[in-house]
Amino acid sequence: MISFLEGTIEHFGDKYVILNTGLPGQGGIGYRVIVSPKVLNILAKTNSDVNGGKVKLFIHSQLNMREGTFDMYGFPDKDDLELFHLITSVNGIGPKSAMGILSVIEPKHLKAAVINEDADYLKRVSGLGPKTASRLILELKNKVDHLDIGDLKGIDLGQEGQAIEALLALGYSQYQAKDALKESKGKTLEERVREALRLLGKR
Q1: 81-117, pLDDT tens digit by residue?
Q2: Per CATH, the architecture of 1-76 is what?
Q3: Three-class SS string for 91-104?
Q4: pTM score, two decimals?
Q5: For residues 62 and 51, what is the distance between their CA atoms, to the nearest angstrom?
Q6: Domain edges within the chain
Q7: Do residues 137 and 120 touch, judged by C-beta distance below 8 A?
Q8: Domain covering 157-201: architecture
């Protein structure tokens, strides 16, 4: 089983990268690794200006019997990978669904939602159905405490969910909304949405 891969990015796809693990100028093997949009952006920056473009991804690998493929999912650190494993341990949530959840919810917000049993936030932000959201909370509530994925102090999931809903209503995607709100410096709901719209207008 592959635990991690380290190398340079040969190609950026829509939802994946091709990672070359060989030495520069000596060829190598290219691995197709599925990543979230957030990680894709991080890798695009890393590939151009850090360590000569060398990156390291922790890997979850799985045989996809339905499509006849051997899929690899990549994460920049071990805690993100462990959170992915916890999500896929929930009955009814597979790797693709788990990656979709992590694409639109910050790990610390997911942890806060589980600890606070905030199923409404999970439904609004990730698009999970009510039964799946409740099941995720029930099965993970006693498993996420030890994860070191950010300070939960001051997180307002209610405001976060409302801000995302406002941007979705204006036609933006889940990922665009989350990405803009992460950079928004406003304190009130209106200020955050207004600042997010300004940022989105520049892209």
Answers
A1: 998 999 999 998 999 889 888 887 878 888 888 888 8
A2: Beta Barrel (2.40)
A3: CCCCHHHHHHHHHH
A4: 0.72
A5: 29
A6: 1-76, 78-153, 157-201
A7: no
A8: Orthogonal Bundle (1.10)
